[in-house]
Write a structure and sequence with these properties.
185 residues, mainly alpha, 8 helices, globular
């Protein structure tokens, strides 16, 4: 099995991270950020629009790396890597899915850190535990995507399969956690 291209992996890491940060914050309208977690059509559309921006920003980052370095990449690997970023980002940003995963892995308390007290709006800071874990999830998938993009052949197939298993496991864990949360309500 041919190993991943270490130089390409390293060369993708920072541009993918920068593209993610731009798309996740300055390029995301406040309306999308406030709406994307809703369990209705508007929520799904807002999240999908946000993820399109994320995917386009990351695709441009990959194209810039390839264009500036003359590196050859497998188009299939790029599609797979960016595809997993899009899938994982959409799924996690729906928020109720993240809440279920937090419960399943015993992190609900951490996710609630920094949230306003009931009946108040007294959290004058940017981050909460949920925000921190949101960013950690996205960074994990940036690393996975970069590794997938830097791979070919059998390794690409193995990594894409492992990424699929990880996403399906997170989805199943989230569903379990949401059932637990529903029973507690």
């Amino acid at each position: 099995m041919q190993p991943a291209d270490l130089a390409l992996l390293g060369g993708l890491a920072l541009p993918l991270f920068a593209a993610h940060n731009l798309a996740d914050h300055p390029l995301q309208p406040s309306e999308w950020a406030a709406t994307k977690s809703r369990c209705d059509h508007e929520g799904r559309v807002a999240c999908a629009k946000h993820v399109v921006v994320v995917v386009l920003a990351q695709a441009l980052a990959v194209l810039a790396v390839v264009g500036l370095t003359g590196t050859t990449v497998s188009p299939l690997a790029v599609l797979a890597g960016i595809g997993f970023t899009g899938w994982s980002h959409y799924w996690f940003d729906r928020r109720f899915t993240a809440a279920g995963l937090y419960e399943a892995i015993g992190k609900t308390g951490f996710a609630r850190l920094g949230t306003p007290r009931p009946g108040t709006d007294d959290a004058p800071h940017l981050g909460t535990g949920a925000y921190r874990m949101d960013q950690d999830w996205h960074i994990l998938w940036l690393a996975i995507s970069a590794l997938i993009i830097a791979s070919t052949g059998l390794l690409l197939a193995v990594l894409a399969s492992a990424a699929t298993i990880l996403m399906v496991s997170a989805i199943l864990a989230s569903r379990y956690g949401r059932r637990v949360l529903d029973q507690q309500a």
